[in-house]
Amino acid sequence: MFLRALKAAFPRTLPVLAGYLFLGLGFGVLLSRAGYGAGWALLMSAGIFAGAMQYVAVDLFLAGAGVLECAMMTLAVNARHLFYGLSMAGWYADSGKMKPYLAFSLTDETFALLSLTEAPESVPERWYYLCVSALNHLYWIAGSLLGALLGLLPFDLLGIEFSMPALFVVMLVEQWRRKRARLPVLIGLACALGCLFLLGPERFTVPAMLLVTGVLFLFRPRLDKTEGRSRA
Amino acid sequence: MSILPAVLVIALVTAALRLLPVMLLGKGGKPLPPAAAFLSRAMPPAIIGLLVVYALRGTDLSAPPHGLPEAAGVCAAALLQYWKKNTLLSVFAATACYMALIRLL
Description:
The complex is a heterodimer of chains A (232) and B (105). Chain A is mostly helical and 232 residues long. Chain A has 12 helices and no strands. Chain A has helices at residues 2-33, 38-47, 51-62, 67-78, 80-92, 99-104, 108-116, 125-150, 163-176, 179-199, 205-218, 220-226. In chain A, helix 1 runs parallel beside helix 3 (51-62). The longest helix of chain A has 32 residues, at 2-33. The model of chain A has no long low-confidence stretch (mean pLDDT 87). Chain B has 105 residues and is mainly α. Chain B has 2 domains: 16-55, no CATH class; 61-105. Chain B has helices spanning 4-24, 34-55, 68-84, 87-104. The longest helix of chain B is centred in the middle third of the chain and has 22 residues, at 34-55. The radius of gyration of chain B is 20 Å and the shape is extended. Chains A and B meet through helix 1, helix 2, helix 3, helix 4 and helix 5 of A and helix 1, helix 2, helix 3 and helix 4 of B.
């Protein structure tokens, strides 16, 4: 069961493997240049597993930020995960004991990957979800450890973080191939751009998420009509 | 000063944000409320649109090179993916294109 799910999940996670090795590497390098070694990289990547926030955390450590400031910043940067949870609650409803781990490991990329791919018929969905989540988690840990170890060497890796937007653009193209996903994609793009221009890069995500939710409901009659199947 | 308290707080807040909706909704095999079921379908593609903007939020259009490396990288990723359908190739090529352009421009 597990092996079959792993075999189905692994090829589909390869793009995230590339992205997470890059991004994790960048994080590990930053952290080690801030004076915290591989042990901290391991602890953070295993226990937090939130890429953007871990980059922000390095800045917080360097600034000597207090616990309260760390909590507030985490709320602001990671509030979008509330919405992933809302979206995935239905998918994860029957996952039993795996549910807490599936929820804990629901990153941007795992969310995007799961919403694009489907488990083969021979594999129970929850095992497929588990394998995708755990593989991505391992890639992230491996990337940050590698970065922590290489951080002391003078590599010029500036710009490697573009693998993240590139991965999202690729996922957007894949969504675009499915006609019924086009209107939601456009709503997401438009709401995000609008909020970005109005509110600036640091504060736009949560308002944008709320706006997206509202606008989706406005278009609900039309979206329900084009939805043939249970999955978008 | 140890960063352990900070790491723990960040981990706890992140986990709470991720666990709360999943653990509270659809509990005990009860069907999701129709509104949540609708969001499960319509939200994923919309959020991918949002994530593209989120990942590019730091792009500075006002200073040279006016977001040109980002624009070129996005186009490279989109066009390659559209034609070749090879995610790895698209991500690698777009990142390489971006890394080259920020050094050249």
